[in-house]
Structures are given as structure tokens and as C-alpha cells.
User: Fold Ferritin from Haloplasma contractile SSD-17B.
Amino acid sequence: MLSKKIEEALNKQLNFEIESAHIYLAMSGYFGDLGLDGFKNFFDVQYEEELAHAKKFMNFIIEKGGRVNITGFESPKNDYESIMEVFKISLEHEREVTARIYDLVDLTKEEREHSTESFLQWFVDEQVEEEATFEDIINKLKLLDGVGTYLLDRELAERTLEEIAE
Ligand code: FEO
Assistant:
């Protein structure tokens, strides 16, 4: 059983994960337009990852006897000045996700909702990886010229969706 407060907070995060997916899908479209298929692949995978995160929240809410509530979403940004801008916005977005997950953990501690706190630990760990992924690419981009960008595009083409345990 979930308290109303926790149920609402989990639903808010569930919807934010879907909103995150939309943001990354728009970035995939931007790279598709530029003909950078590796960058596009990277964001296609990121889109799938965010949907998987959303499903994790959804399944947990149901498992705990709560009610899922899907809302509308803000239109994502579709146009960017540069490759670097896309990754800087992505990193800022992931930092926002981390802050929201931490707020959720704080709430579960206040409400003594131990099972939800345990569930959220997966996301606390995941966010370390999410932020590091974008930081790493930003650092590479700072060092690159045109040839380097081409090589990074080929590297990002290799990314696949890792199995995410339900
Ligand atoms: Fe679902 Fe990228 O955090």
C-alpha cells in the first residue's frame, strides 16, 4: 500500500521519465537531419532507456496497489545550435533527474516507506552512470575536430540497449 503523497510523487517521476524520452527522441531527430547516424543511434537508445525507466515506475506503482496516472507532456526542444549544445542540455537534464530522485528518496525516508526507498536505490545508482555518460562525451567533444567527430559518430553507432531488469 502506498500513501497518497508517495503515489503522487512516483507518478510525477513516471511522467518525467516519459518526458525525458520525448526530449531524447527530439535530439535523435535533430541528428537524423544532420545525417549523423551514430549520434542518432545514441539518442534512440537513450529514448528506449527512458521508456524502460518509466515502465519500472509504472510496474512498481501497480505492484504496490497504487494507481498509475499518465499526464500530458511539454513539447521538447527540436532545434539546436551545435552537437555540443545537445550534450550540455542532456547533462543538465540528467542532473535534474538526479535531483528529483534524491527528493523522492528524502520523501520516502520522511514517510518511513522503506520498500519504495529500496526500489529507488536502482535509480540512484543508474543516475551516476547517466551523468557520467554525458560528461564523457562532452569531454571528448571538447578535444575533437571534424575527423574526431566522424570517429565519435562511428563509436556511438555501436551503442545498444542493455537489458534492464524489470
Ligand atoms: Fe531516466 Fe536519464 O534518467
The radius of gyration is 17 Å. The chain has five helices and no strands. The longest helix spans residues 4-34. Residues 17, 20, 50, 53, 94, 97, 130 surround MU-OXO-diiron (CB under 6 Å).
